[in-house]
Amino acid sequence: MPDRKRILITGGAGFIGTHLCTRLVAEGNDVLCVDNFFTGTKDNIAHLLREPRFEMMRHDVTFPLYVEVDQIYNLACPASPVHYQYDPVQTTKTSVHGAINMLGLAKRTEARILQASTSEVYGDPHVHPQPETYTGNVNPIGPRSCYDEGKRCAETLFFDYKRQHGLDIKVARIFNTYGPNMHPNDGRVVSNFIVQALNGQPITVYGDGLQTRSFCYVDDLVDGLIRLMNSPDGVTGPMNLGNPGEFTIKELAEKVIAETGSKSELTFKRLPEDDPMQRCPDITLAKDKLDWQPGIALAEGLTKTVAYFRDAIDG
Ligand code: NAD
Ligand code: UDP
Q1: Is position 147 annotated as part of the catalytic site?
Q2: How far is the CA of 117 from the centre of ligand 2 (A)?
C-alpha cells in the first residue's frame, strides 16, 4: 500500500494550490483543501470533488482551524499585486495570523509544515541572482509591503516555532510561476499578456519593460514543493524555487505575441511603485538538497499556457 498521508493545503483552490491538490490526490493521498475563495475558485477544483480522497472546506486561515493532518502546505495568500493591494490589511493578516494558526495546528498535530514564501522577501535586490543568504532590500511602508513584509514575518514565525517548539518546518521562496489555471483577470504579467494578445488588445508593458523576471512553469514548481516537503529532517530552507532563465518584460511580450500570432502592439504604462528592477533565483541549494531544477523552458511553458487560455476564452 502506498504511503498515504493526510495533507492540508491552504489556498488550495488558487492557481498553484489547484495543481498541488491534483498531483497529491493522484499520488494517493487524502487531501483537505481549505480556501476562502478570495482569488481561488470552485471551478479550479471542480474536477476533484468526485474524488473520495479529496475534501473542500471554506475557511479563512486568519481564524483557527482544528483538523487532524500529517502535512500542511500553507499557500493561502493572494499572490498578484492587484489582489494583495486590494485589501492590504487583510493581506498582512492572512500571512501573519494565517501562519500563526497553521503553525499552531502543526504543533498540536505534530505535522510537518511548508510555507509558500516568495522572492518578494528580497524586495528590489542589490544582489543578483539572489541566493537564500541575501537578506533583501524591502520598503516596509510601500504599497507592496503588506505582501513582502507579511511574508517576511511569516518566515520569522516559522523559524521561531522551529527554535522554540521544535516544529518540523520547510520554507520555499517561490519565484514568478505561471501556467494553466491562472485566472484571466489575475493581473499578473503572463496571464495579462496572453489574454490581451488573444483578444487583440494592446499589451500593457509597465515602465520601459526592461525590468526582468524569471518565470517557472507550474508543474516544475509543484514538483519542487513536493520534494522540499519530503526532504530529510535537516533541510528546512529557506530555499529558492524558480527558473533561473531571466527575461525582460519586453522580451516576454514579444514571445507572447509570437506564440499567439497576435497583431497586438505594445503600449507603455506607468511603472508601479516599488516594482523590482530585476529578479533571478540562485537555485544551487535546491539542486544540491533536492536534486531539483526546472525542466520546462519559457517557450514550451508559454505554448502550454497559451493553449489553456485559448480554450478558456473560446469557451
Ligand atoms: P492565488 O491567488 O491564485 O491563490 C491563493 C489562494 O489563497 C486563493 O485560492 C485564495 O482564495 C486563498 N486565500 C487568500 N486568502 C485566504 C485566507 N485568508 N484564507 C483562506 N484562503 C485564502 O495565488 P497563487 O499564485 O496560487 O499563490 C499561492 C501561494 O504561493 C501564495 O502564498 C503566494 O504568495 C505564493 N507565491 C506564488 C507565486 C506565483 O508566482 N504564483 C510566487 C511567489 C509566491
Ligand atoms: N507587468 C507589466 N504589465 C502587466 C502586468 C505586469 O508590465 O500587465 C510587469 C510588472 O510591472 C512587473 C512584472 O511585469 O515588473 C511582473 O509583474 P507581476 O505582477 O506578474 O509580478 P511581480 O513579480 O511584480 O510580483
Answers
A1: yes
A2: 18
Please state whether the peptide bond connecting residue 244 to the residue before it is cis, i.e. omega within 30 degrees of 0.
Answer: no
CATH architecture of the domain covering 6-179+217-243+281-295? 3-Layer(aba) Sandwich (3.40)
The three cell numbers of residue 135 are: 537578506
- pTM value > 0.90: yes
Ligand number nearest to the C-alpha of 211: 2
Closest ligand to the CA of 192: 2
Measured distance between the N- and C-terminal CA atoms of the chain, rounded to whole angstroms: 41
SS3 content of the chain, % helix, strand, coil (to 5): 40, 20, 40
How far, in Å, CA of 233 to CA of 150, rounded?
26
pLDDT tens-place values along the chain, 315 residues long: 457 899 999 999 999 999 999 999 999 999 999 999 999 999 999 999 999 999 999 999 999 999 999 999 999 999 999 999 999 999 999 999 999 999 999 999 999 999 999 999 999 999 999 999 999 999 999 999 999 999 999 999 999 999 999 999 999 999 999 999 999 999 999 999 999 999 999 999 999 999 999 999 999 999 999 999 999 999 999 999 999 999 999 999 999 999 999 999 999 999 999 999 999 999 999 999 999 999 999 999 999 999 999 998 876
In a mutational test of the pocket of ligand 2, which residue from 77, 249, 280, 305 has the highest number of ligand atoms less than 8 Å from its CB? 249
Query: What's the CA-to-centroid distance between 189 and ligand 2, angstroms?
Result: 5
